[in-house]
Amino acid sequence: MDTRFLESLLAVVDHGSIVAAAQAQALTPAAVSQRIQVLERDLGQTLLERRANASAPSAACRDLLPAMRRIVNQAQELKRSADPAVAQGVFRLGAISTLLTAAVPGMLIALRQSAPRLEMQITPGSSAALYEAVRSGELNAALIVAPPFLTPFGLQQHPLRSEPLCLLTPEGHPARSAEEAFSGLPHIAYDPESWGGQIASRYLADRGLMPQVLCALDGLEVISDLVASGIGASLVPEWAGLQGARPLPDGAGYQRRLILLTPTTPDRAAARQAVLDALLSSLPGG
């Protein structure tokens, strides 16, 4: 059933005649009349009581009017949601754990003001998994660590912030360098298989350091908790919200770059821009 035909019927009901409805819809009276005849055949009901210069809904039509208006409203809402120039509808965003806490809350607050009709669906995950989800079209965008390779055609990076590598030791520990920390403490490693963990691994390799590894984790918050318990030290990016980290003298040369990854030509251009603007206005260092 073509919802445009329902719109014509509702226009007749609201304006009182086929001629007035045709004027309101920029159609000919014959076209409006034909649309209503098609609806009557489809529904098996007489929908209008036709008079000389006016038309009124039949009893069957009056019973169906609430459902018809709902269908038309839903179809119009669907069209608006699909409009790339309007920031509304569902936007599927992936985010790594540190950005879930550092960026997403402020972004959502900002979006309530700038794009109140945009519904966010947030998916947590690793940078590599979220990258693939954007590439396959499962996600509209993702908050991730910049990949350690060139972004292929069809994907675009939007820089958010850079986080220098720093040293995390138990409270009160005197170490000021990685060499000093790992001479007496085991290494709670930022997973060297993760994109962010590869930066820490490169730092150690560049200095010929091979500390004893206690465990390897991709969760930076868990790493911070384990270090705070006193069982080891770690090299981590200085993510927003991190407490007690010590800067490394050359940590700025080993930065974790955080980005918003999107398709180069997204279907949801206005929604993407609203999300990016909200992130940049709310993320520390953005």
From TrEMBL:
Pfam name, any one: HTH_1
PROSITE patterns cross-referenced by the UniProt entry: HTH_LYSR
GO MF assignments: DNA binding; DNA-binding transcription factor activity
Entry keywords, A to Z: DNA-binding, Transcription, Transcription regulation
InterPro entries tied to this protein: LysR_HTH_N, LysR_subst-bd, WH-like_DNA-bd_sf, WH_DNA-bd_sf
Keyword Transcription regulation: yes
Gene3D superfamilies, alphabetized: 3.40.190.290, Winged helix-like DNA-binding domain superfamily/Winged helix DNA-binding domain
ATP-binding is among the record's keywords: no
Domain HTH lysR-type: 1-58
Family: Belongs to the LysR transcriptional regulatory family.
Name used for this protein in its record: DNA-binding transcriptional regulator, LysR family
Organism from which the protein derives: Pseudooceanicola antarcticus
